[in-house]
Protein backbone atom coordinates (compact mmCIF):
# COMPACT_ATOMS: atom_id res chain seq x y z
CA UNK A 1 0.00 0.00 0.00
CA UNK A 2 2.84 2.41 0.81
CA UNK A 3 4.36 1.94 -2.67
CA UNK A 4 0.97 2.60 -4.25
CA UNK A 5 0.66 5.77 -2.16
CA UNK A 6 4.08 7.00 -3.31
CA UNK A 7 3.17 6.26 -6.92
CA UNK A 8 -0.03 8.28 -6.62
CA UNK A 9 1.83 11.14 -4.92
CA UNK A 10 4.41 11.22 -7.70
CA UNK A 11 1.70 11.19 -10.36
CA UNK A 12 -0.01 14.13 -8.65
CA UNK A 13 3.33 15.90 -8.36
CA UNK A 14 4.26 15.36 -12.01
CA UNK A 15 0.87 16.69 -13.09
CA UNK A 16 1.72 19.91 -11.21
CA UNK A 17 4.94 20.44 -13.19
CA UNK A 18 5.49 21.36 -16.80
CA UNK A 19 8.30 19.91 -18.84
CA UNK A 20 9.56 20.92 -22.25
CA UNK A 21 13.02 21.11 -23.75
CA UNK A 22 13.25 24.71 -22.53
CA UNK A 23 11.81 24.84 -19.02
CA UNK A 24 10.28 23.04 -16.05
CA UNK A 25 8.49 24.58 -13.05
CA UNK A 26 8.25 22.72 -9.74
CA UNK A 27 6.02 23.94 -6.91
CA UNK A 28 7.86 23.07 -3.69
CA UNK A 29 4.69 22.16 -1.80
CA UNK A 30 4.16 19.39 -4.40
CA UNK A 31 7.30 17.47 -3.31
CA UNK A 32 6.30 13.82 -2.87
CA UNK A 33 8.54 13.39 0.21
CA UNK A 34 8.66 16.57 2.24
CA UNK A 35 11.09 15.17 4.80
CA UNK A 36 10.81 17.41 7.85
CA UNK A 37 9.96 20.52 5.87
CA UNK A 38 6.39 21.67 6.51
CA UNK A 39 3.79 23.23 4.22
CA UNK A 40 3.07 26.83 5.20
CA UNK A 41 -0.17 28.05 3.64
CA UNK A 42 -0.84 31.10 5.81
CA UNK A 43 0.31 33.80 3.44
CA UNK A 44 -0.94 32.67 0.03
CA UNK A 45 -2.93 35.86 -0.56
CA UNK A 46 0.19 37.96 0.04
CA UNK A 47 3.04 36.01 -1.59
CA UNK A 48 1.14 33.87 -4.08
CA UNK A 49 1.47 30.24 -3.00
CA UNK A 50 1.94 27.79 -0.14
CA UNK A 51 5.62 27.06 0.43
CA UNK A 52 7.91 24.64 2.24
CA UNK A 53 9.37 25.84 5.54
CA UNK A 54 12.42 24.35 7.26
CA UNK A 55 11.09 24.82 10.79
CA UNK A 56 13.71 22.96 12.81
CA UNK A 57 13.95 25.42 15.77
CA UNK A 58 17.72 25.54 15.39
CA UNK A 59 18.42 22.01 14.10
CA UNK A 60 18.57 21.41 10.32
CA UNK A 61 15.55 19.45 9.12
CA UNK A 62 15.48 16.28 7.05
CA UNK A 63 15.72 16.82 3.28
CA UNK A 64 12.61 17.28 1.16
CA UNK A 65 13.00 15.05 -1.89
CA UNK A 66 11.10 14.38 -5.10
CA UNK A 67 11.63 12.90 -8.55
CA UNK A 68 11.05 14.82 -11.76
CA UNK A 69 11.07 13.50 -15.31
CA UNK A 70 13.05 15.32 -18.01
CA UNK A 71 12.52 14.63 -21.71
CA UNK A 72 16.21 14.76 -22.60
CA UNK A 73 19.68 15.10 -21.15
CA UNK A 74 20.57 18.79 -21.18
CA UNK A 75 21.88 21.66 -19.10
CA UNK A 76 19.59 24.05 -17.23
CA UNK A 77 19.83 27.25 -15.27
CA UNK A 78 18.02 26.85 -11.94
CA UNK A 79 16.02 29.57 -10.21
CA UNK A 80 14.47 29.24 -6.75
CA UNK A 81 11.77 31.51 -5.34
CA UNK A 82 12.76 32.10 -1.74
CA UNK A 83 13.53 34.89 0.71
CA UNK A 84 15.85 35.97 3.49
CA UNK A 85 13.33 36.56 6.25
CA UNK A 86 15.83 38.58 8.34
CA UNK A 87 17.65 40.84 5.89
CA UNK A 88 20.47 42.96 7.27
CA UNK A 89 24.10 42.72 8.29
CA UNK A 90 23.78 39.19 9.67
CA UNK A 91 24.17 35.91 7.89
CA UNK A 92 20.72 34.88 6.70
CA UNK A 93 19.16 32.47 9.22
CA UNK A 94 17.12 30.40 6.74
CA UNK A 95 19.84 29.12 4.42
CA UNK A 96 19.53 25.99 2.26
CA UNK A 97 20.78 24.43 -0.96
CA UNK A 98 19.29 22.60 -3.92
CA UNK A 99 20.74 19.23 -4.94
CA UNK A 100 20.05 17.47 -8.24
CA UNK A 101 20.85 13.75 -8.33
CA UNK A 102 22.96 14.22 -5.22
CA UNK A 103 24.99 17.12 -6.64
CA UNK A 104 24.56 20.36 -4.69
CA UNK A 105 24.31 23.54 -6.71
CA UNK A 106 26.85 26.19 -5.84
CA UNK A 107 24.61 28.94 -4.43
CA UNK A 108 23.45 29.07 -0.84
CA UNK A 109 19.80 30.07 -1.03
CA UNK A 110 17.52 32.09 1.21
CA UNK A 111 19.93 35.01 1.34
CA UNK A 112 18.14 37.72 -0.68
CA UNK A 113 15.58 40.01 1.01
CA UNK A 114 11.91 39.74 0.11
CA UNK A 115 10.20 37.03 -1.91
CA UNK A 116 12.07 36.79 -5.21
CA UNK A 117 13.78 34.41 -7.63
CA UNK A 118 17.33 33.63 -6.57
CA UNK A 119 19.76 32.08 -9.04
CA UNK A 120 20.92 28.68 -7.74
CA UNK A 121 23.37 27.76 -10.50
CA UNK A 122 23.40 25.57 -13.57
CA UNK A 123 23.26 21.78 -13.74
CA UNK A 124 23.11 19.05 -16.34
CA UNK A 125 20.15 16.67 -15.93
CA UNK A 126 19.73 13.22 -17.45
CA UNK A 127 16.88 11.99 -19.57
CA UNK A 128 14.29 10.29 -17.33
CA UNK A 129 13.74 10.66 -13.60
CA UNK A 130 15.99 13.04 -11.69
CA UNK A 131 16.04 13.48 -7.91
CA UNK A 132 15.61 17.02 -6.56
CA UNK A 133 16.36 17.70 -2.89
CA UNK A 134 16.06 20.71 -0.56
CA UNK A 135 18.92 20.60 1.94
CA UNK A 136 18.37 22.78 5.00
CA UNK A 137 21.53 24.24 6.53
CA UNK A 138 20.30 25.90 9.72
CA UNK A 139 16.90 24.76 11.04
CA UNK A 140 15.88 28.41 11.25
CA UNK A 141 12.91 28.65 8.89
CA UNK A 142 14.37 28.62 5.42
CA UNK A 143 11.60 28.77 2.85
CA UNK A 144 11.21 27.50 -0.69
CA UNK A 145 8.23 28.41 -2.85
CA UNK A 146 9.16 27.05 -6.28
CA UNK A 147 12.04 25.83 -8.46
CA UNK A 148 12.37 26.72 -12.13
CA UNK A 149 14.65 24.95 -14.60
CA UNK A 150 15.22 27.08 -17.69
CA UNK A 151 17.48 27.10 -20.76
CA UNK A 152 17.66 30.88 -20.41
CA UNK A 153 19.44 32.67 -17.56
CA UNK A 154 16.49 34.99 -17.07
CA UNK A 155 14.47 35.01 -13.83
CA UNK A 156 10.71 34.47 -13.93
CA UNK A 157 8.44 37.43 -13.12
CA UNK A 158 7.96 38.33 -9.48
CA UNK A 159 5.24 40.98 -9.44
CA UNK A 160 2.16 39.40 -7.85
CA UNK A 161 -0.35 39.45 -10.71
CA UNK A 162 2.24 38.83 -13.41
CA UNK A 163 3.66 35.90 -11.43
CA UNK A 164 0.17 34.44 -10.96
CA UNK A 165 -0.51 34.55 -14.70
CA UNK A 166 2.94 33.11 -15.51
CA UNK A 167 2.42 30.27 -13.06
CA UNK A 168 -0.94 29.38 -14.56
CA UNK A 169 0.59 29.29 -18.03
CA UNK A 170 3.59 27.19 -16.99
CA UNK A 171 1.45 24.72 -15.04
CA UNK A 172 -1.41 24.75 -17.55
CA UNK A 173 -3.84 25.65 -14.77
CA UNK A 174 -7.39 26.74 -15.58
CA UNK A 175 -8.95 29.75 -13.89
CA UNK A 176 -12.10 27.76 -13.25
CA UNK A 177 -11.70 24.54 -11.23
CA UNK A 178 -12.30 21.42 -13.31
CA UNK A 179 -14.17 19.69 -10.47
CA UNK A 180 -17.41 21.07 -9.06
CA UNK A 181 -19.42 19.95 -6.04
CA UNK A 182 -22.83 21.01 -4.75
CA UNK A 183 -24.00 21.24 -1.13
CA UNK A 184 -26.75 22.76 0.98
CA UNK A 185 -24.16 24.63 3.03
CA UNK A 186 -20.46 25.42 2.56
CA UNK A 187 -18.40 26.26 5.65
CA UNK A 188 -14.93 27.78 5.23
CA UNK A 189 -12.72 27.37 8.29
CA UNK A 190 -12.47 24.30 10.52
CA UNK A 191 -11.89 25.92 13.89
CA UNK A 192 -14.32 25.41 16.78
CA UNK A 193 -16.89 27.74 15.18
CA UNK A 194 -16.70 26.03 11.78
CA UNK A 195 -16.93 22.53 13.23
CA UNK A 196 -19.91 23.49 15.42
CA UNK A 197 -21.66 25.01 12.40
CA UNK A 198 -21.16 21.83 10.38
CA UNK A 199 -22.45 19.55 13.14
CA UNK A 200 -25.56 21.61 13.90
CA UNK A 201 -26.45 21.88 10.21
CA UNK A 202 -25.78 18.20 9.56
CA UNK A 203 -28.00 17.17 12.48
CA UNK A 204 -30.81 19.09 10.81
CA UNK A 205 -30.32 17.15 7.60
CA UNK A 206 -28.21 19.53 5.51
CA UNK A 207 -25.42 18.27 3.28
CA UNK A 208 -22.37 20.23 4.40
CA UNK A 209 -18.90 20.87 2.98
CA UNK A 210 -16.36 21.78 5.68
CA UNK A 211 -13.24 23.31 4.10
CA UNK A 212 -10.12 23.72 6.24
CA UNK A 213 -6.61 24.60 5.13
CA UNK A 214 -4.67 22.55 7.70
CA UNK A 215 -4.32 18.78 8.26
CA UNK A 216 -6.07 18.97 11.65
CA UNK A 217 -9.26 20.64 12.87
CA UNK A 218 -9.61 23.09 15.73
CA UNK A 219 -7.95 26.30 14.58
CA UNK A 220 -6.37 27.95 17.60
CA UNK A 221 -7.29 24.90 19.70
CA UNK A 222 -5.44 22.49 17.40
CA UNK A 223 -2.15 20.81 18.24
CA UNK A 224 -0.49 23.13 15.72
CA UNK A 225 -1.32 26.29 17.75
CA UNK A 226 -2.33 24.84 21.18
CA UNK A 227 -4.64 27.33 22.89
CA UNK A 228 -7.13 25.80 25.31
CA UNK A 229 -10.77 26.71 24.82
CA UNK A 230 -12.39 29.24 27.15
CA UNK A 231 -15.95 30.39 27.73
CA UNK A 232 -19.14 28.53 28.54
CA UNK A 233 -21.00 26.08 26.32
CA UNK A 234 -24.51 27.23 27.40
CA UNK A 235 -27.27 25.42 25.50
CA UNK A 236 -24.78 23.85 23.09
CA UNK A 237 -22.89 21.70 25.55
CA UNK A 238 -23.62 18.45 23.70
CA UNK A 239 -22.10 19.79 20.47
CA UNK A 240 -19.22 21.71 21.98
CA UNK A 241 -18.05 18.80 24.14
CA UNK A 242 -17.26 17.04 20.84
CA UNK A 243 -14.92 19.88 19.89
CA UNK A 244 -13.44 21.81 22.80
CA UNK A 245 -10.48 21.08 25.08
CA UNK A 246 -9.58 20.50 28.67
CA UNK A 247 -7.99 23.45 30.43
CA UNK A 248 -4.41 22.34 29.84
CA UNK A 249 -1.60 24.94 29.79
CA UNK A 250 -1.36 26.86 26.54
CA UNK A 251 1.26 25.21 24.34
CA UNK A 252 0.77 21.78 25.91
CA UNK A 253 1.16 18.63 23.75
CA UNK A 254 -2.12 17.51 25.35
CA UNK A 255 -3.72 19.36 22.43
CA UNK A 256 -2.87 16.40 20.17
CA UNK A 257 -5.50 14.12 21.67
CA UNK A 258 -8.20 16.74 21.08
CA UNK A 259 -7.34 16.74 17.35
CA UNK A 260 -8.38 13.10 17.11
CA UNK A 261 -11.53 13.72 19.12
CA UNK A 262 -12.67 16.46 16.75
CA UNK A 263 -11.86 14.44 13.64
CA UNK A 264 -13.72 11.37 14.95
CA UNK A 265 -16.79 13.40 15.85
CA UNK A 266 -16.95 15.26 12.54
CA UNK A 267 -16.59 12.02 10.60
CA UNK A 268 -19.55 10.50 12.47
CA UNK A 269 -21.83 12.58 10.26
CA UNK A 270 -22.31 11.01 6.84
CA UNK A 271 -23.63 14.32 5.47
CA UNK A 272 -20.48 16.31 6.35
CA UNK A 273 -17.81 16.13 3.66
CA UNK A 274 -14.52 17.21 5.20
CA UNK A 275 -11.89 18.82 2.97
CA UNK A 276 -8.68 19.05 5.00
CA UNK A 277 -5.69 20.89 3.49
CA UNK A 278 -7.96 22.78 1.10
CA UNK A 279 -7.61 26.55 1.25
CA UNK A 280 -10.46 28.65 -0.12
CA UNK A 281 -9.10 31.40 -2.35
CA UNK A 282 -12.08 33.20 -3.87
CA UNK A 283 -15.83 33.68 -3.56
CA UNK A 284 -17.79 34.05 -6.78
CA UNK A 285 -20.74 36.42 -6.52
CA UNK A 286 -23.70 37.61 -8.56
CA UNK A 287 -25.71 40.62 -7.36
CA UNK A 288 -24.51 40.51 -3.73
CA UNK A 289 -25.04 36.76 -3.50
CA UNK A 290 -22.28 34.15 -3.34
CA UNK A 291 -22.74 31.42 -5.95
CA UNK A 292 -19.64 29.39 -5.17
CA UNK A 293 -16.32 29.25 -3.35
CA UNK A 294 -13.14 27.93 -4.98
CA UNK A 295 -10.55 26.07 -2.92
CA UNK A 296 -7.11 24.63 -3.68
CA UNK A 297 -5.27 21.75 -2.00
CA UNK A 298 -2.23 23.17 -0.25
CA UNK A 299 0.12 20.41 -1.46
CA UNK A 300 -1.22 18.95 -4.71
CA UNK A 301 -2.70 22.14 -6.14
CA UNK A 302 -5.98 20.40 -6.96
CA UNK A 303 -8.88 22.86 -7.18
CA UNK A 304 -12.59 22.37 -6.48
CA UNK A 305 -15.53 24.73 -6.91
CA UNK A 306 -18.10 24.44 -4.11
CA UNK A 307 -21.62 25.50 -5.12
CA UNK A 308 -24.33 26.12 -2.55
CA UNK A 309 -27.24 28.42 -1.72
CA UNK A 310 -25.66 29.28 1.66
CA UNK A 311 -22.13 29.97 2.93
CA UNK A 312 -20.57 30.45 6.35
CA UNK A 313 -17.35 32.38 6.93
CA UNK A 314 -15.51 30.84 9.88
CA UNK A 315 -12.04 31.75 8.62
CA UNK A 316 -11.36 34.16 11.46
CA UNK A 317 -9.98 36.71 9.02
CA UNK A 318 -13.35 37.09 7.30
CA UNK A 319 -11.74 35.99 4.02
CA UNK A 320 -14.83 34.60 2.33
CA UNK A 321 -16.80 37.73 3.12
CA UNK A 322 -13.92 39.95 2.02
CA UNK A 323 -13.66 38.19 -1.37
CA UNK A 324 -17.44 38.44 -1.80
CA UNK A 325 -17.44 42.18 -1.13
CA UNK A 326 -18.99 42.06 2.33
CA UNK A 327 -18.76 45.26 4.35
CA UNK A 328 -16.24 44.90 7.18
CA UNK A 329 -14.38 46.76 9.91
CA UNK A 330 -10.74 46.75 10.98
CA UNK A 331 -8.97 48.50 13.84
CA UNK A 332 -10.10 50.45 16.89
CA UNK A 333 -13.04 52.80 16.52
CA UNK A 334 -13.11 56.21 18.15
CA UNK A 335 -14.51 55.97 21.67
CA UNK A 336 -17.17 58.43 20.53
CA UNK A 337 -18.48 56.21 17.72
CA UNK A 338 -20.20 53.68 19.99
CA UNK A 339 -19.79 55.46 23.31
CA UNK A 340 -17.26 52.88 24.52
CA UNK A 341 -15.00 55.23 26.49
CA UNK A 342 -13.79 53.96 29.84
CA UNK A 343 -11.82 56.58 31.76
CA UNK A 344 -10.01 54.01 33.87
CA UNK A 345 -7.80 53.05 30.94
CA UNK A 346 -8.35 55.89 28.48
CA UNK A 347 -6.83 55.40 25.03
CA UNK A 348 -5.73 51.85 25.84
CA UNK A 349 -9.37 50.83 26.03
CA UNK A 350 -10.93 52.84 23.23
CA UNK A 351 -8.97 55.75 21.73
CA UNK A 352 -10.28 59.22 21.11
CA UNK A 353 -9.18 58.93 17.48
CA UNK A 354 -9.64 55.72 15.45
CA UNK A 355 -6.55 53.76 14.41
CA UNK A 356 -5.52 50.47 12.81
CA UNK A 357 -4.35 48.77 15.98
CA UNK A 358 -6.07 45.50 16.96
CA UNK A 359 -5.43 42.70 19.42
CA UNK A 360 -2.35 40.87 18.22
CA UNK A 361 -1.32 37.41 17.13
CA UNK A 362 0.60 34.96 19.26
CA UNK A 363 3.09 32.21 18.47
CA UNK A 364 3.15 29.75 21.38
CA UNK A 365 6.24 27.76 22.34
CA UNK A 366 7.66 25.58 25.09
CA UNK A 367 10.90 24.01 26.31
CA UNK A 368 11.78 20.95 28.37
CA UNK A 369 14.59 19.57 30.53
CA UNK A 370 16.61 17.21 28.31
CA UNK A 371 18.49 15.68 31.26
CA UNK A 372 21.84 16.65 29.73
CA UNK A 373 23.50 19.81 28.49
CA UNK A 374 21.99 21.07 25.23
CA UNK A 375 23.51 23.76 23.06
CA UNK A 376 21.49 26.33 21.18
CA UNK A 377 22.99 28.25 18.22
CA UNK A 378 23.72 31.93 18.48
CA UNK A 379 20.99 34.05 16.89
CA UNK A 380 22.45 37.56 16.46
CA UNK A 381 19.81 38.27 13.80
CA UNK A 382 17.07 37.92 16.45
CA UNK A 383 18.47 40.23 19.08
CA UNK A 384 17.13 43.49 17.67
CA UNK A 385 13.68 42.17 18.63
CA UNK A 386 14.45 40.08 21.74
CA UNK A 387 16.99 42.58 23.13
CA UNK A 388 17.83 41.42 26.67
CA UNK A 389 14.55 39.63 27.33
CA UNK A 390 15.03 36.12 28.68
CA UNK A 391 12.49 33.25 28.73
CA UNK A 392 12.25 29.47 28.39
CA UNK A 393 8.52 29.30 27.60
CA UNK A 394 5.90 31.44 25.91
CA UNK A 395 2.36 32.23 27.02
CA UNK A 396 -0.70 34.08 25.77
CA UNK A 397 0.95 37.47 26.32
CA UNK A 398 3.59 36.72 23.68
CA UNK A 399 1.67 38.76 21.16
CA UNK A 400 2.40 41.31 18.45
CA UNK A 401 0.36 44.10 16.95
CA UNK A 402 1.12 47.58 15.65
CA UNK A 403 -0.94 50.22 13.89
CA UNK A 404 1.29 49.94 10.81
CA UNK A 405 1.16 46.15 10.28
CA UNK A 406 -2.13 44.60 9.19
CA UNK A 407 -2.92 41.22 10.78
CA UNK A 408 -3.88 39.77 7.37
CA UNK A 409 -1.83 41.68 4.81
CA UNK A 410 1.37 41.64 6.90
CA UNK A 411 0.85 38.31 8.65
CA UNK A 412 4.18 36.80 7.56
CA UNK A 413 6.10 39.78 8.96
CA UNK A 414 4.17 39.45 12.22
CA UNK A 415 4.89 35.70 12.49
CA UNK A 416 8.56 36.24 11.71
CA UNK A 417 8.80 39.01 14.30
CA UNK A 418 7.50 36.56 16.91
CA UNK A 419 10.00 33.90 15.81
CA UNK A 420 12.83 36.37 16.34
CA UNK A 421 11.41 37.21 19.77
CA UNK A 422 11.28 33.52 20.71
CA UNK A 423 14.70 32.48 19.43
CA UNK A 424 16.41 35.55 20.88
CA UNK A 425 14.74 35.31 24.28
CA UNK A 426 15.55 31.60 24.52
CA UNK A 427 19.20 32.21 23.60
CA UNK A 428 19.39 34.82 26.37
CA UNK A 429 17.95 32.31 28.82
CA UNK A 430 20.45 29.66 27.78
CA UNK A 431 23.29 31.92 28.88
CA UNK A 432 22.05 31.87 32.47
CA UNK A 433 23.24 29.30 35.03
CA UNK A 434 20.72 26.51 35.60
CA UNK A 435 19.43 26.41 32.02
CA UNK A 436 22.17 24.21 30.57
CA UNK A 437 19.81 21.23 30.15
CA UNK A 438 16.87 23.18 28.79
CA UNK A 439 15.95 22.27 25.22
CA UNK A 440 13.66 24.18 22.91
CA UNK A 441 11.02 21.49 22.48
CA UNK A 442 8.27 23.05 20.32
CA UNK A 443 7.62 26.34 18.57
CA UNK A 444 4.50 26.84 16.50
CA UNK A 445 5.02 28.33 13.07
CA UNK A 446 1.32 29.18 12.76
CA UNK A 447 -0.12 32.46 13.99
CA UNK A 448 -2.74 32.26 16.70
CA UNK A 449 -4.81 35.30 15.78
CA UNK A 450 -7.19 37.24 18.00
CA UNK A 451 -8.53 39.92 15.74
CA UNK A 452 -8.45 41.09 12.14
CA UNK A 453 -11.40 41.81 9.84
CA UNK A 454 -14.83 41.93 11.46
CA UNK A 455 -17.68 41.52 8.98
CA UNK A 456 -20.65 43.86 9.35
CA UNK A 457 -24.07 42.42 10.08
CA UNK A 458 -27.49 43.96 10.66
CA UNK A 459 -26.32 44.68 14.22
CA UNK A 460 -22.87 45.66 15.51
CA UNK A 461 -22.19 44.28 18.97
CA UNK A 462 -20.40 46.71 21.30
CA UNK A 463 -18.90 46.91 24.77
CA UNK A 464 -22.04 48.65 25.98
CA UNK A 465 -24.16 45.64 25.04
CA UNK A 466 -22.04 43.52 27.34
CA UNK A 467 -21.77 46.12 30.09
CA UNK A 468 -25.54 46.63 30.14
CA UNK A 469 -26.19 42.85 29.82
CA UNK A 470 -28.71 43.53 27.05
CA UNK A 471 -31.08 40.58 26.64
CA UNK A 472 -31.73 40.67 22.94
CA UNK A 473 -34.90 39.14 21.56
CA UNK A 474 -32.66 37.21 19.15
CA UNK A 475 -29.97 36.17 21.66
CA UNK A 476 -28.36 32.95 20.39
CA UNK A 477 -25.17 32.89 22.49
CA UNK A 478 -24.40 33.69 26.10
CA UNK A 479 -21.15 34.31 27.98
CA UNK A 480 -20.16 35.01 31.57
CA UNK A 481 -16.43 35.49 31.06
CA UNK A 482 -15.08 39.00 31.64
CA UNK A 483 -14.40 41.40 28.78
CA UNK A 484 -10.73 40.87 27.96
CA UNK A 485 -9.00 43.29 25.58
CA UNK A 486 -5.26 43.17 24.90
CA UNK A 487 -2.75 45.92 24.19
CA UNK A 488 1.03 45.96 23.68
CA UNK A 489 2.97 46.78 26.85
CA UNK A 490 5.34 49.11 25.04
CA UNK A 491 2.46 51.56 24.60
CA UNK A 492 2.85 52.48 28.27
CA UNK A 493 6.47 51.42 28.87
CA UNK A 494 8.79 51.92 25.92
CA UNK A 495 11.52 49.89 27.63
CA UNK A 496 9.34 46.74 27.43
CA UNK A 497 9.80 44.48 24.38
CA UNK A 498 7.20 45.12 21.71
CA UNK A 499 6.14 41.45 21.53
CA UNK A 500 4.59 41.31 25.01
CA UNK A 501 1.03 42.35 25.83
CA UNK A 502 -1.20 43.07 28.79
CA UNK A 503 -4.93 42.53 29.16
CA UNK A 504 -7.62 44.95 30.30
CA UNK A 505 -10.52 43.30 32.09
CA UNK A 506 -14.06 44.41 32.74
CA UNK A 507 -16.18 42.05 34.81
CA UNK A 508 -19.84 41.58 34.07
CA UNK A 509 -22.31 38.95 35.26
CA UNK A 510 -23.42 37.76 31.82
CA UNK A 511 -23.94 39.00 28.29
CA UNK A 512 -25.68 37.82 25.14
CA UNK A 513 -24.90 37.80 21.40
CA UNK A 514 -27.76 38.55 18.99
CA UNK A 515 -28.36 36.50 15.86
CA UNK A 516 -28.26 39.68 13.75
CA UNK A 517 -24.47 39.82 14.24
CA UNK A 518 -24.03 36.45 12.53
CA UNK A 519 -25.05 37.24 8.96
CA UNK A 520 -23.73 39.79 6.50
CA UNK A 521 -25.33 43.17 6.10
CA UNK A 522 -24.92 43.24 2.32
CA UNK A 523 -24.17 39.68 1.09
CA UNK A 524 -27.58 38.05 1.19
CA UNK A 525 -26.58 34.39 1.71
CA UNK A 526 -23.51 34.76 3.92
CA UNK A 527 -23.34 33.83 7.59
CA UNK A 528 -20.29 34.41 9.78
CA UNK A 529 -19.32 32.80 13.07
CA UNK A 530 -16.19 33.28 15.13
CA UNK A 531 -14.02 36.30 15.71
CA UNK A 532 -15.09 37.80 12.36
CA UNK A 533 -18.67 38.31 13.61
CA UNK A 534 -20.22 41.77 13.56
CA UNK A 535 -18.80 43.75 16.48
CA UNK A 536 -16.68 46.68 17.49
CA UNK A 537 -13.06 46.25 18.59
CA UNK A 538 -14.01 46.37 22.27
CA UNK A 539 -17.15 44.36 21.58
CA UNK A 540 -14.90 41.50 20.45
CA UNK A 541 -13.09 41.43 23.79
CA UNK A 542 -15.39 38.93 25.48
CA UNK A 543 -17.06 36.81 22.76
CA UNK A 544 -13.80 36.06 20.87
CA UNK A 545 -12.96 32.97 22.97
CA UNK A 546 -13.56 29.59 21.36
CA UNK A 547 -16.47 28.12 23.30
CA UNK A 548 -18.40 31.33 22.65
CA UNK A 549 -17.54 31.31 18.96
CA UNK A 550 -18.61 27.66 18.94
CA UNK A 551 -22.01 28.76 20.25
CA UNK A 552 -22.21 31.19 17.35
CA UNK A 553 -21.35 28.42 14.92
CA UNK A 554 -24.01 26.05 16.22
CA UNK A 555 -26.64 28.82 16.08
CA UNK A 556 -25.70 29.53 12.46
CA UNK A 557 -25.93 25.84 11.61
CA UNK A 558 -29.50 25.75 12.92
CA UNK A 559 -30.37 28.98 11.12
CA UNK A 560 -29.06 27.53 7.86
CA UNK A 561 -31.47 24.61 8.21
CA UNK A 562 -34.36 27.08 8.45
CA UNK A 563 -33.08 28.89 5.36
CA UNK A 564 -33.40 25.64 3.45
CA UNK A 565 -36.73 24.69 5.02
CA UNK A 566 -38.39 27.99 4.09
CA UNK A 567 -36.26 28.91 1.06
CA UNK A 568 -35.24 32.13 2.76
CA UNK A 569 -32.14 34.14 3.60
CA UNK A 570 -30.26 34.50 6.89
CA UNK A 571 -32.02 37.84 7.37
CA UNK A 572 -35.33 36.18 6.52
CA UNK A 573 -34.83 33.79 9.45
CA UNK A 574 -34.63 36.77 11.79
CA UNK A 575 -37.61 38.49 10.24
CA UNK A 576 -39.94 35.51 9.94
CA UNK A 577 -38.66 32.42 11.76
CA UNK A 578 -36.85 33.65 14.87
CA UNK A 579 -39.12 31.79 17.27
CA UNK A 580 -38.39 28.49 15.53
CA UNK A 581 -34.64 29.18 15.57
CA UNK A 582 -34.70 29.80 19.32
CA UNK A 583 -36.71 26.60 19.76
CA UNK A 584 -34.06 24.60 17.87
CA UNK A 585 -31.39 26.07 20.13
CA UNK A 586 -33.38 25.27 23.27
CA UNK A 587 -33.68 21.66 22.10
CA UNK A 588 -29.99 21.31 21.25
CA UNK A 589 -28.98 19.58 24.48
CA UNK A 590 -31.94 17.19 24.55
Q: What does this entry show, briefly?
A:
This protein is α+β, with helices and mostly antiparallel strands. Helices cover 23% and strands 26% of the residues. The longest helix has 21 residues, at 546-566.
Describe it for me?
It is built from 14 helices and 30 strands. The radius of gyration is 24 Å and the shape is globular. The protein has 3 domains: 2-171, Jelly Rolls; 184-332 and 453-463 and 515-586, 3-Layer(bba) Sandwich (FAD/NAD(P)-binding domain); 361-443, no CATH class. By secondary structure, it is α+β, with helices and mostly antiparallel strands. Strand 7 and strand 8 (103-104) form a beta hairpin. The longest helix is centred in the C-terminal third of the chain and has 21 residues, at 546-566. The two termini are 44 Å apart. Helix 4 (192-203) runs parallel beside helix 12 and helix 12 (546-566) crosses helix 14.
List the helices and strands and how they pair.
Blueprint: H1 2-15, E1 18-19, E2 23-27, E3 38-40, H2 44-47, E4 51-55, E5 64-70, E6 74-82, E7 96-100, E8 103-104, E9 116-125, E10 128-136, E11 140-150, H3 160-171, E12 179-182, E13 185-188, H4 192-203, E14 208-212, H5 237-240, H6 255-267, E15 272-276, E16 278-285, E17 290-297, E18 303-307, E19 311-313, H7 319-324, E20 328-329, H8 335-338, E21 361-362, E22 365-369, H9 383-386, E23 399-400, H10 411-430, E24 438-443, E25 454-455, H11 463-467, E26 475-479, E27 483-488, E28 501-506, E29 511-514, E30 526-528, H12 546-566, H13 570-576, H14 578-586
Parallel strand pairs: 12-18, 13-14, 13-19, 14-15, 19-30
Antiparallel strand pairs: 1-2, 2-11, 3-4, 4-11, 5-10, 6-9, 6-11, 7-8, 7-10, 16-17, 17-18, 20-25, 21-23, 22-24, 26-29, 27-28
